[in-house]
Amino acid sequence: MSKAMRNNIIEKTELIEKEFNLTAMPTHRRVTDLMKVGLIQREKAGEKVKLTPLGIYFIKQIKELRNEVVHNMSNLI
Fold this sequence. Notes:
The protein is mainly α.
């Protein structure tokens, strides 16, 4: 995942498709799924996708979990 993709909160789905080498259909499904659970929002199809406060919190939790796993793995080695 590119640094721009990780650091930006707002992305157009076309950038997501390009970044992950997806066609429009899987991207649309993923965006719809993320909207349904409240992690992202956008006004209408084709508009910019924004993280919701819940999405921001979720990403923070994933990063903390990743750091904890790395720390624990380094202690095992």
